[in-house]
Q: What sequence folds into this?
């Protein structure tokens, strides 16, 4: 047997150990290669005005994947080398030199790396057309046709080959510098007594409570250091929860003797206490990675909903038209073209002509509306109607203010006009605008008679609003008008036009963020697999000894299932809670509900987690069954 054959057989004999490492590395390379196919597509160099932001986003995703893959592969290699330390100790006792051991570890890691690169590229080629079509749908273009990605192949190979080379040199250092006696004793570590710290357990729950409370009340107390405080308290609380809090909860179960002594409960509670203590850091990492994945994907998935609601605030009506200075014939033609286009495309619409007074001041611009005109617009938008007396006024915002009470304009009790004998009493205010973003800063609503009196001293302009039920599909009409009147002296805005512009960016970020989030999720699942496999040697000895004193296969299966389920789903459930509180911040700040998209994302990941659990549970129990008497 040659040395290369020996390295190859080491891998084939440890197939179960290398499976998750190989598949996870292959998946990372597959995603990297798929993004590279899109980034080096020939269409990227045809119209760079359109593709520049796409290429930049894909490049950022490639960097993030490589950065994460480095630490992920580093952790994976360390996990497997730790499992095989006894094997390395035996090889050294049999006469293998340190140089030969270095060569063996290098060859094994590089062989796995090369196979991962080849498989990742082949799978990427298989799905390349799918990813190109998916990217085209995301950015609303048909320019991404299938091609032979030679450049993407070389970039992927030249990126991950040095990565595996560096890690193959770095990781085995811990084995080379460890004494043989320590390597041989690696699998004979005794279980130490579990000490329950009530103080640390209370601190864990207190940190989580503090972090959740800051997130829940972020809208009323958001500051520069609030997010850092939330991150600190939640991270510290998560680690302490797995290190001591969970052990404390298990200790409380032991106090209920009727439950603790029932059937196999004693077995899994005792074993789980040790496994939670030993795997606290791993469970912490899995929880944080899962929470990042869930939060990122749910946020990106929610962007479209948020953008549409923000757009409806900035542009309450489908089309808005108002003059910059004086009316002219050209702008009248623009309105006529818009109405003809809507009729030709079979869109129903309502037109509202609203007179308004514009009063520029030093720091802001006031818009004065008559009560009846404001109610006409409010009624079209299903907003509350306002009723004013002649000596009353009502204030409204045009921009979106997160805390309207901090604006001095809305804290005044009266408003004055030079031509009026007495100031008008402010009866209320609202942050929901009926006027388009950019026309002014604040709105003052006055009685119709007062507005008529003001018209005699201030110039009056007209605002044209078009209410279209299916306004999301009117983007092409707006683009045609923008192209026909590029230098118009009037302001013309279209909600659908800006919605299409924003959708391209949000869809691209969702496309990229989803795959990076999936990589994080796959890595989290791999960490769990690594840890279960690392503990397998200890567990099989434990169940072997218990089977000798009467533990049945059914009892072993139940005890092992409970332990695996808690190790699998405890991080998932805690990450889910983290996600809900993390998304509470944008919900409060933007005054939108993200419950529906968040539940959709978490449901998908929950189904994947359940499938992964049953597959791994089956393999794990099948392996333990071999050692049952």
A:
């Amino acid at each position: 047997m040659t040395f290369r054959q020996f390295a190859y057989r080491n891998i084939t004999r440890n197939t179960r150990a290398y499976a998750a490492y190989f598949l996870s590395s292959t998946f990372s390379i597959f995603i990297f290669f798929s993004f590279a196919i899109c980034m080096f597509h020939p269409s990227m160099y045809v119209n760079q005005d359109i593709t520049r932001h796409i290429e930049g986003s894909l490049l950022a995703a490639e960097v993030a994947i490589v950065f994460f893959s480095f630490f992920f592969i580093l952790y994976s290699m360390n996990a497997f080398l730790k499992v095989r330390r006894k094997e390395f100790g035996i090889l050294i006792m049999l006469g293998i030199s340190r140089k030969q051991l270095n060569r063996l570890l290098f060859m094994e890691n590089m062989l796995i790396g090369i196979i991962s690169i080849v498989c990742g590229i082949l799978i990427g080629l298989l799905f390349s057309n799918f990813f190109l079509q998916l990217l085209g749908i995301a950015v609303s273009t048909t320019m991404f046709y299938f091609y032979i990605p030679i450049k993407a192949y070389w970039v992927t190979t030249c990126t991950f080959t040095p990565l595996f080379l560096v890690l193959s040199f770095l990781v085995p250092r811990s084995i080379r510098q460890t004494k043989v006696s320590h390597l041989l004793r690696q699998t004979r570590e005794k279980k130490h007594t579990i000490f329950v710290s009530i103080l640390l357990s209370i601190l864990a729950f207190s940190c989580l409570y503090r972090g959740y409370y800051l997130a829940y009340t972020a809208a009323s107390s958001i500051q520069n250091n609030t997010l850092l405080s939330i991150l600190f308290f939640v991270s510290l609380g998560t680690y302490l929860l797995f290190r001591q809090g969970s052990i404390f909860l298990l200790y409380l179960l032991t106090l209920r003797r009727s439950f603790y002594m029932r059937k196999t409960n004693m077995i899994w509670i005792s074993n789980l206490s040790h496994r939670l203590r030993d795997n606290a850091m791993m469970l912490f990492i899995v929880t944080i990675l899962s929470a990042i994945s869930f939060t990122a994907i749910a946020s990106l998935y929610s962007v479209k909903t948020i953008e549409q609601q923000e757009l409806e605030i900035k542009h309450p009506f489908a089309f808005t038209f108002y003059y910059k200075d004086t009316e002219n014939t050209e702008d009248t033609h623009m309105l006529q073209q818009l109405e003809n286009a809507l009729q030709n495309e079979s869109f129903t619409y309502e037109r509202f002509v609203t007179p308004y007074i514009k009063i520029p001041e030093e720091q802001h611009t006031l818009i004065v509306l008559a009560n009846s005109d404001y109610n006409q617009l409010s009624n079209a938008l299903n907003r509350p109607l306002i009723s004013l007396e002649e000596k009353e006024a009502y204030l409204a915002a045009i921009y979106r203010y997160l805390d309207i009470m901090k604006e001095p304009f809305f804290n005044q009790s009266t408003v004055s006009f030079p031509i009026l004998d007495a100031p008008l009493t402010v009866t209320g205010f609202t942050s929901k605008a009926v006027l388009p973003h950019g026309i002014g800063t604040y709105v003052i609503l006055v009685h119709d008679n007062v507005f008529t009196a003001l018209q005699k001293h201030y110039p009056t302009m007209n605002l044209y609003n078009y209410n279209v039920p299916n306004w999301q599909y009117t983007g092409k009409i707006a683009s045609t008008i923008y192209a026909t009147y590029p230098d118009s002296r009037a302001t013309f805005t279209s909600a659908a036009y800006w919605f299409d512009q924003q959708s391209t960016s949000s869809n691209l970020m969702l496309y990229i963020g989803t795959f990076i989030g999936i990589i994080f999720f796959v890595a989290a699942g791999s960490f769990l697999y690594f840890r279960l496999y690392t503990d397998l040697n200890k567990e099989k000895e434990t169940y072997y000894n218990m089977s000798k004193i009467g533990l049945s296969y059914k009892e072993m299966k139940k005890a092992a299932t409970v332990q695996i389920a808690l190790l699998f789903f405890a991080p998932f459930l805690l990450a889910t809670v983290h996600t809900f509180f993390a998304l509470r911040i944008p919900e409060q700040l933007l005054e939108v509900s993200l419950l529906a998209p968040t539940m959709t994302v978490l449901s998908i990941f929950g189904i994947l987690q359940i499938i992964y659990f049953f597959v791994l549970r089956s393999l794990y129990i099948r392996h333990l069954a071999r050692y049952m008497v």
